[in-house]
Design a protein that fits this description.
By secondary structure, the protein is an alpha/beta fold. Helix content is about 40%, strand content about 20%. It is globular and about 55 Å long.
Length: about 425
């Protein structure tokens, strides 16, 4: 079994929330996660975008960055970026083999995500990054990333997700996500609703963690078309007036505001992170498959919206009717996702991605109720139909519903339609 095959074999162990395994792996590795400054980013939507924006700001300031995110689009190597470069395959193999031996010696069986977390922490230490930007996998309190003591914590927002593990109300989910708050560590909070925000703020108060909250401590706005947006920010000692934002979609205004606020708090550890670097990073940030146009003729847009809140933001970001190819995961509210996109879908093509987490197309069709749709079980065939329909109708094709959908569709579009490769 090759190292990467071993890594993927751990998916059979599913999801196991807890910190014992990751602590034992890190102890055996010499606690690499303590060797650089970290930022911890949790929440429901927008985590990866906040990380991407912070990464671009820090690199503009001259810092060497590590970026740990999940899931990946095409290659597992995407999860471990240093200065936006994928981990070399040989390095990935070496890290896997190291922790494989540790796990055997310690008598533990890590999950796929636990081992990925360990690899990320160790790779960033060996690559001598200045700052590690760490995205929470699920929840926060018992997520394997939650052994770090960050310089800044971020919680983007709270929506119903992973209710089997995190709870069935926004307040219960907020409690789990508030688990990343550390004593005295500043928290940047984007959740606007009083219920979940109150849970988070009370926990922060208990731990003496100062909270910088969107809308009260800092304000923001955005204007212009999705691919040429101008972002404004005011608060925490910084004013930005209509500066370029590299990530498309109005929903990115929230993520940009959170990233700027986090950058301002991070300046105590990274003094070169000045206003000039923040502005340069806002313009330079790239985060693939987030309202990303990957083909021009016909226009093809890929977005990773995978829950109702994300689908609603996607619908708002689209300028008019479109052809939609949709495939979702079985643990998501497909009915709500379809309802959010229905107003934009001139034609709805339902399909499924390849993998055990995919919702079968027949079940997805049942969620569409009375909507007119076409069901095609094969994602490549659904894309072929969608491209043809988009050309005929003169409308954009939007591919969405899951990060798995986005990644597999992007590979097909690169291989068969000449779409541009992924860039970070």
């Amino acid at each position: 079994m090759t190292p990467v095959e071993y890594l993927y074999s751990l998916e059979l162990h599913g999801i196991k929330l807890g910190l014992e395994n990751i602590r034992r792996l890190m102890d055996a590795a010499g606690r690499p996660e303590t060797q650089y400054t970290t930022v911890h980013v949790g929440g429901t939507n927008g985590k990866g975008s906040v990380v991407a924006l912070l990464d671009a700001m820090l690199r503009a300031a001259g810092y060497r960055t590590g970026r740990f995110t999940s899931p990946h689009l095409i290659s597992v190597r995407e999860r471990f970026l240093v200065n936006s470069e994928l981990i070399p395959a040989a390095d990935l193999d070496q890290h896997i083999e190291f922790f494989r031996e540790v796990a055997a010696r310690e008598g533990i069986v890590p999950t796929f995500f636990e081992l990925c977390t360990a690899i990320g922490f160790r790779h960033f230490a060996e690559a001598r990054v200045d700052v590690g930007l760490i995205e929470v996998g699920m929840g926060g309190r018992f997520d394997s990333t939650n052994i770090i003591l960050p310089e800044v914590s971020v919680i983007t927002n709270i929506s119903l997700e992973h209710t089997k593990y995190l709870g069935d109300t926004l307040e219960k989910i907020a409690f789990e996500k508030a688990g990343i708050i550390k004593p005295g560590v500043p928290l940047i909070l984007g959740e606007p609703l009083d219920g979940p925000a109150g849970v988070i703020c009370r926990r922060a108060q208990e731990l003496g963690a100062p909270v910088r909250q969107i809308g009260s401590d800092f304000k923001f706005s955005i204007e212009g078309p999705p691919q040429a947006q101008r972002f404004s920010f005011s608060g925490l000692g910084l004013d930005l007036d209509r500066v370029p934002l590299g990530l498309g979609g109005q929903y990115q205004r929230f993520n940009a505001a959170l990233a700027v606020a986090a950058a301002l708090e991070l300046r105590a550890a990274c003094p070169a992170l000045d206003a000039e670097a923040i502005v340069a990073g806002l313009a330079a940030a790239r985060w693939p498959c987030r309202l990303e146009r990957v083909l021009e003729s016909p226009e093809v847009i890929i977005d990773v919206a995978h829950n109702a809140a994300g689908a609603q933001e996607l619908a708002r970001a689209l300028s008019g009717p479109c052809i939609v190819v949709l495939a979702v995961s079985s643990d998501k509210d497909a009915t709500a996702i379809i309802a959010a996109l229905a107003s934009r879908a001139r034609r709805l093509i339902l399909t499924q991605f390849d993998g055990p987490r995919a919702l079968p197309v027949a079940a997805l069709g049942a969620c569409a109720r009375a909507l007119v749709r076409e069901e095609i079980a094969s994602l490549p065939e659904a894309l072929e139909r969608g491209v043809a329909e988009a050309k005929t109708a003169g409308l954009p094709l939007v591919v969405t519903g899951s990060l798995f959908t986005a990644g597999q569709a992007r590979r097909i579009l690169i291989d068969d339609y000449g779409a541009k490769p992924i860039e970070f």
